[in-house]
Automatic annotation (TrEMBL):
<dbReference type="GO" id="GO:0003700">
    <property type="term" value="F:DNA-binding transcription factor activity"/>
</dbReference>
<keyword id="KW-0238">DNA-binding</keyword>
<dbReference type="InterPro" id="IPR036390">
    <property type="entry name" value="WH_DNA-bd_sf"/>
</dbReference>
<comment type="similarity">
    <text>In the C-terminal section; belongs to the class-I pyridoxal-phosphate-dependent aminotransferase family.</text>
</comment>
<dbReference type="InterPro" id="IPR004839">
    <property type="entry name" value="Aminotransferase_I/II_large"/>
</dbReference>
<dbReference type="InterPro" id="IPR015424">
    <property type="entry name" value="PyrdxlP-dep_Trfase"/>
</dbReference>
<dbReference type="InterPro" id="IPR036388">
    <property type="entry name" value="WH-like_DNA-bd_sf"/>
</dbReference>
<dbReference type="Pfam" id="PF00155">
    <property type="entry name" value="Aminotran_1_2"/>
</dbReference>
<dbReference type="Pfam" id="PF00392">
    <property type="entry name" value="GntR"/>
</dbReference>
<feature type="domain" description="HTH gntR-type">
    <location>
        <begin position="11"/>
        <end position="78"/>
    </location>
</feature>
<keyword id="KW-0805">Transcription regulation</keyword>
<dbReference type="InterPro" id="IPR051446">
    <property type="entry name" value="HTH_trans_reg/aminotransferase"/>
</dbReference>
<dbReference type="InterPro" id="IPR015421">
    <property type="entry name" value="PyrdxlP-dep_Trfase_major"/>
</dbReference>
<keyword id="KW-0804">Transcription</keyword>
<keyword id="KW-0663">Pyridoxal phosphate</keyword>
<dbReference type="InterPro" id="IPR000524">
    <property type="entry name" value="Tscrpt_reg_HTH_GntR"/>
</dbReference>
<dbReference type="GO" id="GO:0003677">
    <property type="term" value="F:DNA binding"/>
</dbReference>
Amino acid sequence: MQLQIEPDGDRPLVQQVTEGLREWIERHASSGVRLPSIRRLSSELNVSRNIVIEAYERLVALGWVRSRPGSGFYVAERPMEADEQGARSGMADVSGEMWNQFQDDGNSLRLGCGWLPSEWREEEVFAHAVRQVTRHASSGLFDYSTPLGSPELRALIQERLRRLAIDADANQLLMTGGASQALDIIVRWLLRPGDTVFVETPGITTCSACCICSVSGSLG
């Protein structure tokens, strides 16, 4: 077994061994193949036995390796290998696209997130508001409050809505930790498995993730 290990590399040795073994299994091994013993592999790679033990334990946890007491470590069975590979590839494409929308190259406005450019932020105004709130803070600022959110904030929003001719009681308003949580609650409440959802692009990346997770049976 030839694994590329860099003792002075940036990645921890256990990570190198784990990833090396996983790649070797993917390319060369079929289910049921016996893997080198801890002593043999540590000698071949010139690493401590503890490194090899932890690498094997990680692969067992990830489902790549099966431990047989008194016998050693074997490549685990992967009956759904083709389907899993397709799923991993599809998720990699989705996650890659989502992550790219959060990258800040300094030249574009990120439409897929809720962050404002630093030059748009009135930091002094925010700092003053925070000082005012903490100076007159009630116990609700530090303790658990109603699940609906701050009564004072809901009352303020109710007044703003009234000015827009929207008749809403404060008890009908629910505060969330952000747009992602709000979308998650809406999707969980309104959608059912098999429903069709249109999501605009560019847009909020977490909207697609909320729809996928909520309607795929992950609600429990």
